[in-house]
Amino acid sequence: MSSAVTEVEVSGKKESSLSAVSWGPIIAGAFAASTLTVVLMLVGSGLGLTMVSPWTGASASAVTFAVSAAVWLVVVQWLSAGLGGYLTGRLRAKWVGIHDDEVTFRDTAHGFLAWALATLLVAGVFGSALSATIGAGVQAASNVASGAAAGATSAAASAATGPTEN
Q1: Which of 9, 90, 101, 121 is the most exposed place for a label (fewest CB within 10 A)?
Q2: For residues 64 and 76, what is the distance between their CA atoms, to the nearest angstrom?
Q3: Candidate ranges 42-46, 91-95, 97-101, 138-142; pick with highest mean pLDDT
Q4: How far apart are alpha carbons 97 and 148 in whole angstroms?
């Protein structure tokens, strides 16, 4: 009994064993977006401080200040996400032999991943700064309360001993 092996050629597209996600460009785009966010937030802080005045009636109204801040935050988000996504798309390796729709999807996915990573980085930096500021405020309040308690204890002790005669 003889066994024959026949080869069957399957026509179709072969799936790549490599990942379609290029983490190098994603990380680079995320760092660029995070850096631009921090720089633009500093610029926005400076512009916001120009709207506030210590003199009565010379400052912008609270509504104007809030609307300006909201518009600035949207502009910062758009510019940062745009830069991060653009860099991610330009730095990634070129995909050959795949449909244009797939390339568009992969580019969009890479841009989204860069945006998500940048958002996490910025949230971590601002969260850390906010935590440090709150910690310093709590410590200052604790020192004031401790000093007030020591002063009250001293006053109570001197009141309890009564007046001293000279």
Answers
A1: 9
A2: 18
A3: 42-46
A4: 75
